[in-house]
Amino acid sequence: MKLTEKELEIVEILEKDARTSTEDIAKMLNLSLEETEGLIKKLEESNVIVQYSAIVDWSKIAGHEGVTAMIDVKVTPKRGVGFDEIAERIYRFKEVKALYLMSGAYDLSVVVEGKSMNEVAHFVSDKLSTLDSVLSTTTHFILKKYKHDGTIFEQNDDDRRIVVSP
Amino acid sequence: MNKMMMTEELWCLLNMKKTSYLSKTVEELKPSGIRRFFDLAAGMEGVISLGVGEPDFVTSWSVREAAILSLEQGYTSYTANAGLMELREEISAYMGQSFGVPYSPKNEIIVTVGASQALDIALRAIVDPGDEVIVIEPSFVSYAPLVVLAGGKAVTVNTKKENDFKVSKEELEQVITSRTKAIILCSPNNPTGTMLGREDLIGIAEVAKKYDLLILSDEIYAELSYDEQFVSLAAIEGMRERTILISGFSKGFAMTGWRLGFVCAPEELTQAMLKIHQYAMMCAPTMAQFAAVEALKNGRGDVEDMRKSYRRRRNYFVHSLNELGLECHVPGGAFYVFPSIKSTGLTSTQFAERLLLEEKVAVVPGDVFGESGEGHIRCSYASSMEQLQESIKRIKSFIERP
Ligand SMILES: Cc1ncc(COP(=O)(O)O)c(C=O)c1O
């Protein structure tokens, strides 16, 4: 789907800050409020904008720190459906936060979140590795998130400029 | 006791003023009105500043990283007076590709300590005592003082809001005398944000040709033009030979603190400026030059992203100010809006001072940029959207207060 310049700008603005108000977007793009509403609706309906969500630093929330693992999975693709069928079987688990088909040494990259390492380990051994097409798994636990979806978690972005300058 | 000594002491006292070590020129130079405002705002907590004349972006990491690498590798010595050849070659290619004004890296480009130093050496290279240089106001605060420091006389021309602060041929001709040597032009403009299009430049070029004048074209904001393609004065027919083009990395590349700019001009002028530069500066800082090489090689995508971001904020801010009744023309470039505050009945200084004290929003009163700036304030929209939104709220409550 080809977007117009204005649509592209709306996507960029909302991807950066999904809470930017429609009034502000309208002003930023020299559009009327109605036009802007219409364009956003169109982007939502065509699933270009899939969802609005917040980036949360769970490590800050006592008792909810959780663990995330990235699991490299090798599978045997099936005739006719390739990787799609096994991918679907995997991404339907609610523990799976992201799933990507990869080039290179393995096939699927599965991002799994759980309350504890134990919980993730259980998921891998009970649910993932027992699937017929799965040949092998390698689990990597994330120790610390520095940057996620373009957002740096501990950013010192104080304004260091002097208050008035020529 | 002895009458002799008394009179001598008295004599010294009476002559205290006379023995000042300062030059007349410097003594008579007025401190910048910006400075006064800075002192007022600097001590306050919780101020939202729209008074900043620099980008809110930090220099791209790849550029900072290139400077770090140069330090690690031990590039800590002087460069050639005119700057690293590699950088001059990049500048040459950049000016050619981006603005259609190629200059020879060998003898038509000098890397300077900011556009500021480029302005200084340009003026010192061309001004004889008593020569006149035309400064179009409202203007960047350094032009007139630099002319004076170079021994010249700054002759000002006022522009008007009705004309979007563009100068007309007639207005220029009115102040031209037999002593006029040059005109300083700034587009996109600080403080008004006005950008001159090709037609405007052609008009000014005609005047320059007719009276055989040089133009110092300050194109430091060239990368920050939002509606039309920026046109360099040197690209106007017949103007390359009478243009000293001044630009740099401070604004478009968000590199103000690196103190790096450059000046491009035909060989004769460049060599004259190089004489001053070699004695007064030796060369621009080496690590900053390495950073600039990276900025030109790989940083143009970031410039594009920043430009987009400024454009959105400009649109937002201009709309919001106009809604508040603070009328402004849509500035085609830079990151300044120059709204009229005449509807409030206050002077620029009153408005700016009261806004700062009562609502903690710092703006710059327009009259510091020349008398034709009176009745206006300069707001920089190089601030986060949150800050811009909050400042609009505060300005609204300020002007709605009885
Ligand atoms: C019009 C204009 N020229 C020159 C400069 C100085 O730039 P630099 O940081 O390159 O010395 C500025 C900075 O505020 C400016 O606004």
List the helices and strands and how they pair.
The complex is a heterodimer of chains A (166) and B (402).
Chain A: H1 5-16, H2 22-28, H3 33-45, E1 67-75, H4 84-91, E2 96-101, E3 108-114, H5 117-128, E4 134-141, E5 147-148, E6 151-152
Antiparallel strand pairs in A: 1-3, 1-4, 2-3, 5-6
Chain B: H1 3-14, H2 24-28, H3 33-42, E1 48-49, H4 61-72, H5 85-99, E2 109-112, H6 114-126, E3 132-137, H7 143-149, E4 153-158, H8 169-175, E5 180-186, H9 198-210, E6 214-218, E7 243-248, E8 261-264, H10 267-280, H11 286-298, H12 300-323, E9 336-337, H13 348-359, E10 361-362, E11 364-365, E12 377-380, H14 385-400
Parallel strand pairs in B: 1-10, 3-4, 3-5, 5-6, 6-7
Antiparallel strand pairs in B: 2-8, 7-8, 9-12, 11-12
Helix pairs in contact in B: 4-11, 5-11, 6-7, 6-10, 12-14
The structure holds pyridoxal-5'-phosphate.
CATH class group of the largest domain in chain A: Alpha Beta
Helix content of chain B: 40-55%
Whole-Å distance between the termini of chain A? 45 Å
Strand count, sense and closure of the main sheet of chain A?
4 strands, antiparallel
User: What number of structural domains do the residues of chain B give?
Assistant: 2
* Structural classification of chain B: alpha/beta
Please give the alpha-carbon distance between the first and last residues of chain B: 69 Å
Tally of separate helices of chain B: 14
Bound molecules: pyridoxal-5'-phosphate
The appropriate CATH architecture of the largest domain in chain A is 2-Layer Sandwich
Query: Helical content of chain A, roughly?
Result: 25-40%
Number of strands of chain A: 6
Largest interface: A-B, 17 and 28 residues
GO molecular function, one term (chain A): sequence-specific DNA binding
Keywords (chain A): DNA-binding, Transcription, Transcription regulation
Protein name (chain A): Lrp/AsnC family transcriptional regulator
InterPro entries (chain A): AsnC-type_HTH_dom (IPR000485), Dimeric_a/b-barrel (IPR011008), HTH-Siroheme_Decarb (IPR050684), Tscrpt_reg_AsnC-like (IPR019888), Tscrpt_reg_AsnC/Lrp_C (IPR019887), WH-like_DNA-bd_sf (IPR036388), WH_DNA-bd_sf (IPR036390)
